[in-house]
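Format notes (please read before filing issues)

Several people have asked whether sequences and structure tokens are stored in separate files. They are not. Every record keeps both together, in the order shown below: the sequence lines, then the token lines. Line labels are part of the format and must not be stripped during preprocessing.
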Amino acid sequence: MNEFAAHPVDVVVIGAGQAGLSAAHHLRRAGMVPDRDFVVLDHAPRPGGAWQFRWPSLTYAKVHGMHALPGMELTDADGSRPASEVIAAYFTAYEDTFDLRVHRPVEVSAVREGDGGLLLVETSRGVWPTRAVINATGTWDRPFWPRYPGQETFAGRQLHTADYPGPQEFTGQRVVVVGGGASGTQHLMEIAEVAADTTWVTRRPPVFREGPFNEEWGRSAVALVEERVHRGLPPQSVVSVTGLPVNDAVRAALANGTLDRLPMFDRITPEGVAWADGRSVAADVILWATGFRAAIDHLSPLKLREPGGGIRMEGTSAARDERIHLVGYGPSASTIGANRAGRAAVRDIKRLLDRAPAPA
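Then the structure lines:
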């Protein structure tokens, strides 16, 4: 069924998480009408972006740095409820309040060059011609699994943060948690309360940071990530350059040894993990909290990548094609960054549309 082919639009927004909803809001404020001038497509079954897939033990109180969407505060949230429920309800209310008319579930398979300067957005519900694309697909759909010798021989269970069910499934088990980010430390601390034993393994020594993550610190961190994407390198997460925030739970885990870290192992054995110096740890589970990569394969037909492997950015637009804007990518991968990127992308797209009249 090709329900879209006869209806070109000025902008297609791909993704309805924080970045996509922010962009849609600013398109609305710029005078554009949803389903006439722009459309929002989302592959998820319901509102909530990637938050709807988070594990139940991640309560809203544990969420670090959730920034409100533009024009509507998230107020009176119950910190004891799962973040997946709180944020999904907030996003639902936001979509309804601003009448954003998100189409879901719609899978976007490719964005290609069309005729007359139009782009063609190929989806599970047809092809949508458009003058510009705001890509807000995030990273959740591309979990990163490192490869180590012997990985296929491990007799236990391996899973990624994307599949993490909460701590109860690890009761009485020996668990190796791999990864030095916020998710890895959160998983480790709650699993340690029920597991027979836990081991934390990271490539680099973790950096714990006391004090508030204020705006000045955030700007410095974002600038480091932005410098990479400006050179066409794959972005690092903002968290990777801010360090890990210290709270009472982290202090307790540091004091009791839960957050004692080992360097990265050299190989995986049927029984666990091992290092070149002869040390080994037995394990029933290896949990890979090793992050995600940008979900941008559908943009491949446009050949936007640089030799360094990333998409070189000028503001929010791809340097190789000013019609393509990436929000929630690289330096805008935080919730506040996504809001700002959505506003900036719409501003630049409006200028582009005013400069290049629509095809007859």
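For reference, the curators noted about this record: The first strand starts at residue 9 and ends at 14. The chain has a mean pLDDT of 89.
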